From TrEMBL:
Keywords: FAD, Flavoprotein, Oxidoreductase. This is GMC family oxidoreductase. Transmembrane segments: none annotated. Residues 436-552 form the Glucose-methanol-choline oxidoreductase C-terminal domain. The keyword Flavoprotein applies. The lineage of its organism: Bacteria, Bacillati, Bacillota, Bacilli, Bacillales. Pfam families: GMC_oxred_C, GMC_oxred_N. Residues 221-329 form the Glucose-methanol-choline oxidoreductase N-terminal domain. InterPro entries: FAD/NAD-bd_sf, GMC_OxRdtase_N, GMC_OxRtase_C. The keyword Kinase does not apply. Belongs to the GMC oxidoreductase family.
């Protein structure tokens, strides 16, 4: 038996950053909002005294239960996709806050180039610069149009930073100043400056100082404990939906947060959604939640899967290049790493924060000439001092075996004398990289799993070689005794961990033939369905996606307000 609940103005599928922002903004305007989260609830008190590397970092306490739902993966269409049985290449959060609770806190703005990448690349280098197999397209919005929403997200989160000398124009400075510059970061800053580059502090959601945001939420400054990524912050210093937007929504009295509620279908008639069907994961009961507007606000991969399961939008077909749902899946090109060993310098690498670092954008976007290069875009090169946890950090020389007396001696010696410098490289969308439903494997409820088809291409390998040359120069300038540089980008594998920066699948644009949503994150085919988040990115840039998905969420909240007042497709 399925129980139908009273109709609400807005129902949200997932309560992480995107769902939390929509909940706060819309409930403040007086709309009744229901947030359905398939995981458990969280409060700041749940993060107290949780500095347990084994439990959270290695055994993935805050992550999705892959025995109930996972994805299947293959490198190409000739392979059979197999289920991801344990968290590896990326980790998917579950529970209130989602990935916004266990993230590191690095919070960049994408470059103006990103939003008009096809137009600007062709204008500068000609149409032949981009192989047609790469399905690159403009986003349907410019940086200048999105800038006010970036500003809103940064003020809400209290982002700590300094102006990027090679970034887009800002309407306001960061609400709080940059993080500390530790000795190793000072060394990086001096080395890159000597090389004629433009270093700046990594924009940080780990607060550099006590801060009260425009909603009246006060949070304490970061203590540099080093337990950020894969952990909740016991001080509330790391911006997290649990300590920022969710309390604001709850305070209005207009937000009904329902945990352990797994949405399995979006219901629709004609070109409108009527609500969602969800299962109480504790009792097994089924419910229908009718709503005027449906916000698909879960993780990238689940956004795509839900639309495919609900027969909403045209599934992407790699054979014809037509269709939009599942199109332009992109990962992150973690490229060109250089390891530096120092015999005459020591650093306290166990202290840190998820976004404590210095970086450069000289080799990101189109900030350098690509005329004679076999790739476009690039990556943000950063030296991060995130806090080296003792179980996972045992640095040795490259040729040393992972056991024995020499391993132990070098682990002790280089625990304070090794740094790693690499880049978050952009990934260009590819005709044969996409998401669809797996024909074989199903989840605990009998629904098809999502299938991922992805590999690194020659474009990514060329970028890795180029970035490797740059990171090596910097580490040598820092005075490393020995360096080890990785220039090869091997075949992509679902293990080990690399980055949780998945993008695409429900992409935005100005043309309904090549995109699933418009620049308000509103579906072209279902006018009362909004899908914000990184699933809307037409390509992956050389940064963490959170700042941009936050900005798009504020844009979507504005769009939902306009839709509820006036109806129709927004322009």
């Amino acid at each position: 038996m399925v129980t139908t609940l009273p109709k609400t103005d807005v129902v949200l599928i997932g309560v992480g950053w995107t769902g939390g922002i929509l909940a706060a903004e819309l409930s403040k305007k007086g709309y009744k909002v229901v947030g359905l989260e398939r995981g458990k609830g969280r409060k700041l008190d749940d993060y107290l005294m949780v500095h347990d590397e084994l439990r959270y970092s290695k055994r993935h306490e805050m992550m999705q239960d892959l025995s109930r739902e996972t994805i299947t993966f293959r490198n190409n269409e000739k392979m059979r996709a197999l289920p991801m049985r344990q968290h590896g290449s990326f980790v998917i959060g579950e529970g209130v806050g989602g990935s916004g609770s266990h993230w590191s806190g690095q919070n960049f703005r994408y470059l103006p180039y990103d939003f008009q990448i096809k137009t600007l690349t062709e204008e500068k280098y000609g149409k032949n610069k981009i192989d047609p197999i790469y399905t690159i397209q403009d986003w349907g919005i410019t940086y200048d149009e999105l800038e006010p929403y970036y500003d809103a997200f940064e003020k809400m989160a209290g982002i700590s930073g300094e102006e990027n000398p090679l970034g887009g124009a800002r309407s306001n400075p960061y609400p709080t100043g940059p993080m500390k510059v530790s000795p190793v970061l000072k060394l990086f800053k001096e080395a890159t400056t000597n090389l004629g580059l433009h270093p700046f502090s990594v924009p940080s959601a780990n607060l550099s100082e006590t801060y009260t945001n425009p909603d009246g939420i006060s949070r304490a400054a970061c203590q540099y404990c080093g337990f950020c990524s894969r952990f909740g912050c016991e001080y509330g210093a790391k911006a997290d939906p649990v300590v920022t937007v969710v309390p604001v929504a709850e305070k209005t009295g207009n937000f009904d947060l329902r945990t352990h509620s797994n949405v399995v279908e979006i219901l629709h008639q004609g070109n409108k959604a009527t609500g969602v069907r969800f299962i109480d994961t504790q009792t097994g009961e089924e419910f229908i939640q009718p709503a005027e507007v449906v916000g698909v606000t879960s993780f990238v991969l689940n956004n795509t899967r839900l639309l495919l399961l609900s027969n909403m939008g045209t599934p992407y077909d790699s054979k014809t290049g037509k269709g939009v749902i599942g199109k332009n899946y992109a990962y992150q090109n973690n490229c060109g790493e250089t390891i530096g060993l120092f015999d005459d310098k020591q650093f306290n690498l166990y202290a840190g924060a998820g976004s404590l670092g210095m970086c450069i954008d000289d080799f990101n976007g189109d900030n350098f000439d690509h005329t004679n290069l076999n790739f476009i875009h690039g990556g943000n090169i950063a030296l991060l001092q995130t806090g080296k946890a003792p179980i996972g950090f045992n640095p040795t020389k490259e040729e040393t075996k992972n056991w024995g007396k020499q391993f132990k001696q070098e682990s002790i010696k280089y625990s304070s004398r090794q740094i790693a410098l690499d880049a978050q490289g952009a990934i260009m969308p590819h005709r044969y990289h996409y998401l669809d439903l797996d024909p074989t494997y199903k989840d605990a409820y009998g629904n098809p799993l999502l299938r991922m088809t992805f590999d690194y291409e020659e474009h990514d390998r060329e970028m890795a070689k180029f970035i490797g040359d740059q990171t090596e120069k910097i580490v040598k300038e820092m005075g490393a005794t020995e360096t080890y540089t990785t220039r090869d980008q091997p075949t992509y594998d679902i293990v080990p961990y690399q980055s949780t920066h998945n993008t695409g699948g429900v992409i935005m644009g100005a043309d309904r033939e090549t995109s699933a949503v418009n620049n308000y994150m509103q579906m072209w085919d279902f006018e009362n369905v909004f899908v914000p988040g990184a699933s809307a990115f037409p390509h992956n840039s050389g940064y963490n996606p959170t700042g941009t998905l936050g900005a798009l969420s504020y844009r979507a909240a504005e769009g939902i307000d306009k839709y509820l007042k006036n109806g129709g497709l927004l322009v």
